[in-house]
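ZP: hey, is the protoporphyrin IX containing FE complex queued? I don't see it on the tracker
AM: it wasn't, my bad. submitting now with these inputs:
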Amino acid sequence: MVLAALHLLAAALYLGASLTLGAAILPAFRGEGGAGQRATLARILRVAHPLSLGCLGVLVLTGAAGVTALKDRYAGEFAARWFGLLGLKLLLVFVLLLLASYEFFGLGLRLTRAVAREAAGEGGLSPGVHARIVARLQIVALANGVLAAAASAVGMLLARG
Ligand code: HEM
């Protein structure tokens, strides 16, 4: 019960954070932003990305507990009854985790490290590279919002039993 509630809470937080970032925050930083704008975005990402990463950790752990509970409940029938839905859900989550790793470590860290270099008076990002990173961050955040919504829909079917 507690683990199921945590799973639901983390799903809602992750979905909300991804869609807010992709649909409302990142569009304001599109284009060839300057150092000041980049520093503001870096401050947002330093909160949003660890929060999202934490939610994904909670989702994987509590999701595994949910699978164990389903196994207990359905014993011998488990594979026949749940293989398709669970397989689809794990595939969605696998792609989501790959994209999230790219978002957090490939794009987000590149931007926040560039801001730290700029603050130290070293070279930062060219306008073209800034624009490319922000555009990719937005695409990945929106794609993960859609994947999280699909994983949630499949999760609700699983929870209905
Ligand atoms: C490895 C990762 C995951 C596994 C193994 C997993 C597994 C499960 C299982 C077994 C259930 C059914 C629980 C029950 O019978 O009460 C469930 C429900 C659910 N899952 Fe996941 N899940 C994972 C990740 C995610 C992700 C990434 C999201 C969305 C961001 C998500 C959203 C949901 C939702 C919304 C429910 C319905 C909860 C309810 O109605 O109580 N899950 N999940």
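AM: back. The first helix runs from residue 2 to 25.
ZP: great, adding it to the tracker
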